[in-house]
Amino acid sequence: MPQTEPIIYPEIKVPSRILLGPGPSMADPRVLKAMSTPLVGHLDPEFVKVMDGIQELLRYVFQTENALTLPVSGTGTAAMEAAVANLIEPGDAVLVCVNGYFGRRIAEMAERYGAQVEIITRPWGEIFSAEEVDAALKARPAQIVAIVHAETSTGALQPLDEISRVVHQYGALFVVDAVTSLGGLPVRVDETGIDVCYSGAQKCLSATPGASPITFGPRAVEKIDARKTVVANWYLDMSLLKNYWGGQPRTYHHTAPISAYYGLYEALRLAAEEGLENRWARHRKNAEMLWQGIEELGLSMHVPLENRIPSLTTVRIPKDVDDLSIRKALLSEYNIEISGGFAELAGRVWRIGLMGYSSRAENVLLLLAALKKLLE
Prior knowledge:
It is a single chain. The protein has two domains: 106 residues, Aspartate Aminotransferase, domain 1 (Alpha-Beta Complex); 244 residues, 3-Layer(aba) Sandwich (Aspartate Aminotransferase, domain 2). The chain is built from 13 helices and 14 strands. A seven-stranded mixed sheet has the order 2-10-9-8-5-3-4, with helices on both faces. A three-stranded antiparallel sheet has the order 11-14-13, with helices on one face. The protein has a two-stranded parallel sheet with strand order 1-12. The longest helix has 21 residues. It starts with 17 loop residues before the first strand and ends with a helix.
């Protein structure tokens, strides 16, 4: 029988958490306000102005002049897949540097698109040297080399300059995952020589998940244009998307997540207003405050100081401390969310994020005070 009586479900009621985990970070109030802007059509002239502004601001945040710079309609993983799907044709040789969970994810995606994948590894929390990449390419040349700049699963920050030079000496394309770094620490795409770089909106940019930045340099665009096969992922095919984001006239591709793009635009405006150098300095200053406080509590970090991500810290859990009980108490008693480790670091570390709007001194002091109380 058809339902004739109204069915009343409760409205959404969630607390306003202090998000200090690996993501999402706390959205800036201006971002949330921007997302309440009325909807218009995805080809409306006023929305096209927003799209133009997003692209211009993304070039600023990426520090690039790449024409093919845009947000993917999806989370950071969609941007990762856009990089993989557009560059790889079946049989391409790909080298992936894996020192954490997200390097593994790149390798798995590349295999699904038919690449001949070679992996080099480092223990979780360590970084790669340019010599290791050079040796791997000498033993087995590759057309694409992929690496994670700031590995969210471990807290390790990977230097890129020397590796970029090595990659280009072998004529390969350099693909960089900057999901946990863009907007919080330097990601100088053009200066470093990155051919494809992607990120997410919900971390150091403090927007909401669903609109993920990506940029393709000239060499990457050449490879896409020279493909002998179509991109296997229609939704993420840049040869189609570029006509929506910069075609004359613009061509419909999909219905954009308009509210998410409003939020991304405002988040990028905030980054520009603060200034990248100032923003990087803020993230570093608050991270150093956290690191000092953690050491004063008698705890240690998983990653050495010189290789540590300012936006994501991994803290080793003492053997006599229960990981889950501390995190549950932080959430229930102090309204603070941090995360535990997973895969190889499950039960061994806490992951503490100070990203974007969450990277504030008062949040650091509150977390340290709460941890001190709970650990006593």
